[in-house]
Amino acid sequence: MDDTESTTTSADENTGNLCDNPTRDTLAEGLLGLLKPTVDQLDDRVRATRISQLELKQQIDSLNEELLKVREALNNHPDLDPYVKKLIACKHKVTVVLNVLQASQDRLNEIRRMINKDKPTQASILSEPAIKPEQSTKVGSGSGVVITAFSMAFPTTICFSTDINYKACDMTKSTAINNNISVETVNMDLASSFIGNKFDIIIFNPPYVVTESKECGGCDITASWAGGVKGREITDRLLDMIPKILTDEGIFYLLLIEENIPNEVITIMLKYGYKSEIVMRRRVRNEDQLVLKFYKN
């Protein structure tokens, strides 16, 4: 009994000595001292990593917002096709104006050449067959160069010109007067005011540029080029008038470009009983132009 008590007392004392062991405490403090810088450094890195992750998350959120804006912009982008078509049409119109100016210059040079001759000669377009028209008209006279040259080639012919733009009528009159030529200018839509089969020669240089229909029918400078669908809306209106104003022996000269689909025009005139010939072809910048002659006999 005494031995048992002695043994138990000895174990408790040893346990108390272990808990209060100064060697163990010193060793633990040393280990903590060695590990603390590493732990502090690791803690700093973890903190920096968390800050970087937060910044990365903010950047991702910002990028996501930008991507949403881009997606919305792509879904709501404007249709540029109509604007591209308008730019192409404007480019074509500028080309037409340049062609008109160049053609006018060429015709003026031709007029000067003809004036210097002792007597006028027929224009090459009318050389076959030889004709002596009594009355002729130029529909859409513009500057008046064509009808003036025609009148000089056929001085005994009574020449009329029409244009829906009154300024063009004034210009035609001025061109004729400056070349000592008499031309009757009439401000009208095509040849709508003429009745009866009056004219031996009809010449038409139409507004042949392919445009939207709403651009047709004006009275300003657009009337000189805006041709509407196929570039033929104005031309087709005149085709319906030709049998009513051209004499049976008369000739109708019409300038077209390939975009106007000349074969369709030939078919239309054939229904009215007119034969056709291509009397001239030429390439003017980006246009393939041709002159058609329509006649019955």
TrEMBL record:
Residues 1-15 have a biased composition (Low complexity). One of its GO terms (biological process) is methylation. It comes from Parnassius mnemosyne. This is Methyltransferase HEMK2. GO terms for cellular component: eRF1 methyltransferase complex; nucleus. Belongs to the eukaryotic/archaeal PrmC-related family. Residues 1-22 are annotated as: Disordered. It is found in: Nucleus. Signal peptide: none annotated. InterPro entries: DNA_methylase_N6_adenine_CS, Euk-Arch_PrmC-MTase, PrmC-related, SAM-dependent_MTases_sf, Small_mtfrase_dom, Snapin/Pallidin/Snn1. It comes from the Eukaryota. Its main location: nucleus.
